[in-house]
Recover the amino acids of this structure.
């Protein structure tokens, strides 16, 4: 079970994954009518290529982790509800997960959506993964091994936060 002192490890997303496409389509293709066959300036590829980027599948890396390290206390797939909403579901009463939003890179597609549609940060955080596709809560003494195994499996794991005493089972994005 998730406990105070657990380390939160994030696995980067490949972009939008499968969530937030309604808002992305409305902002980028509806209101702004950005062309799909051009780079809007900071993606490094066309908008169409970015929007069609396949969702990362973490299963192979997780199977390897399960074979080689102590099991994580929780695993959350960051889908609709964003980082905070999904991690919060795994945090029991009496604890709070704290995620350091500066601990990972936010892919340019999210900044493009926010800037183009004047989307509030709170809405961005509720709708999109913002760069983290999966998060794990692991015991502090298993964190280094977890990071090493996931790295060896081809992931780029990052420590994105921790679980602390207090609260009602939520997640704070800081």
């Amino acid at each position: 079970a998730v406990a105070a002192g657990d380390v939160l490890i994030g696995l980067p997303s490949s972009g939008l994954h499968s969530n937030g496409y309604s808002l992305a389509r409305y902002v980028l293709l509806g209101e702004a009518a950005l062309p799909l066959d051009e780079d809007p300036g900071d993606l490094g590829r066309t908008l169409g290529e970015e929007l069609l980027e396949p969702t990362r599948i973490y299963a192979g890396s997780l199977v390897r982790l399960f074979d080689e390290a102590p099991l994580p206390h929780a695993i959350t797939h960051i889908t609709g509800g964003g980082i905070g909403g999904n991690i919060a579901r795994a945090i029991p009463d009496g604890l709070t997960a704290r995620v350091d939003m500066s601990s990972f890179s936010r892919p340019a597609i999210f900044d493009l959506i926010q800037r183009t549609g004047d989307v509030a940060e709170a809405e961005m955080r509720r709708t999109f993964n913002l760069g983290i596709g999966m998060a794990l809560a692991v015991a502090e003494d298993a964190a280094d091994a977890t990071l090493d195994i996931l790295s060896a499996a081809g992931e780029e794991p990052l420590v994105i936060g921790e679980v602390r005493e207090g609260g009602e089972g939520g997640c704070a994005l800081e």
